[in-house]
Amino acid sequence: MNEWRRVSPIAIIYFLFDSLRQAVNLWPALVPLVAGGEGFRQLFFTFGLPGLLVVFVLSVLLHFWFFRFRIEADRIQLHTGVFNRKRLTLYFERVQQADIAQPFYFRPFGLATLGLESAGSRQQEVDIPGLSFDVAQQLKDSILAHQAAEQETVADVVEVEQPPDYELHLDWPEVARYGLMFNGLLLFAPVLAPFLDDLAPSVEAWISGLEGTAAHELLVQSTRSELIWLVGVLSVFALLAAIALLFFISMLIALVRFWDYRLTRHGDQFQYRAGLGTVKTRGFRLHKLQQISISQGLVARLLKRYTLTISKAGSAAPVGDVEDSRRFLVPVLDRNGLTALTAQLSIPTLRWRRVSPLYVPWYGASVAFCLSVLLTVIARDHQWYPVVLLFIWMTSFLYFWRRWRCLGIYQDDNWVGLCSGLVGRKVVLLPIGKAQKTSISEPPWLKAWGLAHLSVWGAAGRIDMPFVSRSDADDIRDQTLYRVVTFQGRWF
Asked: 235 and 343: one domain?
């Protein structure tokens, strides 16, 4: 199998969906289309759109044509790209994760996608689409067998016949809640802003067309007001309906991604399997864990739910920057589920310590002063200037007081962590023995108060602890360095 090989022509569908996924990130380019006027839109739909479609189709076909791979005794090599040609070499011993996915468009043809992740570099995470399922399984077994020969841990996926030591199943109502908690479609709301200028006149014209009908009388009687108030009510209703539609679509996306979500633990091996159209299996071993993030936004807080994200060896970027497909994600947990899962991850009960309360006046006064200077420059002569000035100072101190109330630090023999938030909450935990660097910053304005900023770096990101007493910063740094030196566990 040392010769260069192409994947099945059916893989064109994979490259099509992958290109569409990347094209979604270009949605801000729609803003000129919306705001450019009728003439610009007509020109775009007449010449621009057909040209873009031709370029898009050619790009998909060329990406398929130039994609080749070669399997050697101890490595996989890939040629990718059209104009920017890349050659990637991935050694078997560096593979940290091997997943096989069968999207709905591959299943009738017995094809699959083999996903491989390597340690320490997000750039060496590759998918080989359009392989026969048997070839994908054989290649995965070859990688695991090679690791076994090198005395590495063999199984990233445990035999399903073994009863799990721990199991979590999320039914569809729980998964739908994740769509409410993380509605990325709301990012499209700015694109809809130009349409709002035309919303009220359109509603008014529609109502005028209903004059003399029973529907018009019903609307007027229900609002008990004049036309302007009726237009306002219907405009608000249309806006709320649009937001509700976005949330509904977000829930559908969550159901497709995490349908029948099942998380199991066999020994130190965690694995989840989920998906409706495309069933994906992801796993990691406990010794590969690099960082844990527990988040609870505003909607999640109202629903009393949490999301837990694990960054493992092989995902070098901070948790917030890693794609969902490159993270081990537990989308939604209630309080009992979170307690049970954190116990499986050997996380103790966290007792947070607050940072110095001087955090509030320092940041509050700094931000309020800058905003006050800006307000003085642009609106000093207005009669409402003193009221706005007072509002700025009060809001600034209240904001940072709330941030301080949510801010906490934690350290024990195994973990170092930070808790932050405003309305919601986010907890980041780093295995203390896997810390890579510590730093203490002591500016003059903090040194006078006996305070400092402490930063702890890990393979998956950094934890910043502001306004910590210098003695606490020294203790955390020394304990962290001691645990790193005496750490006897495995990193990968």
From this structure: yes
CA distances 106 to 12, 109, 133, 252, Å, are 11, 6, 9, 22
- Say what the pLDDT of residue 43 is: 72
d(CA 115, CA 14): 13
Of the candidates 292, 263, 268, the residue with the CA atom closest to the CA atom of residue 174: 263
- Identify whether residues 379 and 308 lie together within a single domain: no
Q: Helices 227-258 and 189-196, interaxial angle, to 10°?
A: 160
pTM of the shown model: 0.69
Q: If residue 417 lies in a helix (H) or strand (E), which one and from where to where?
A: strand 415-420
> Given this model, what pLDDT does residue 403 score?
95
Residue 399 dihedral angles phi and psi, to the nearest 5°:
-60, -50
HSE value, Cβ hemisphere, 13 Å, CA-based, for 340: 14
Domain that holds residue 143: 5-149
Q: Quick check: 250 pLDDT over 80?
A: yes
Could you give the CA distance from residue 276 to residue 271 in angstroms, rounded to a whole number?
17
Residues 198 and 261 in one domain: yes
Q: Does residue 120 sit within a domain? A: yes
Cα-trace Rg, the chain:
28
Q: Is 144 left (phi over 0), alpha (psi -120 to 50) or beta?
A: alpha
Does pLDDT of 225 surpass 70?
no
**CA distance linking residue 359 with residue 221, whole number of Å:** 55
> pLDDT of 409-466, one tens digit each?
999 989 999 999 998 899 999 999 889 899 999 999 899 999 999 999 988 889 999 9
Coil, strand, or helix at residue 167? Answer: strand
Say yes or no: 377 and 467 in one domain: yes
Token code pair at residue 230: 């009726």
Same-domain status, 288 and 401: no
The residue from 298, 327, 347 where one domain ends is 347
223 in a domain, yes or no? Answer: yes
Tokens of 161: 């016949």
Residue 308 has pLDDT above 60, yes or no: yes
Q: φ and ψ at 244, to 5 degrees?
A: -60, -35
**Confidence class for position 185, pLDDT limits 50, 70, 90:** low
The pLDDT value recorded for residue 366 is 94
3-state secondary structure of 263: strand
Strand 306-312 to 289-296 pairing = antiparallel
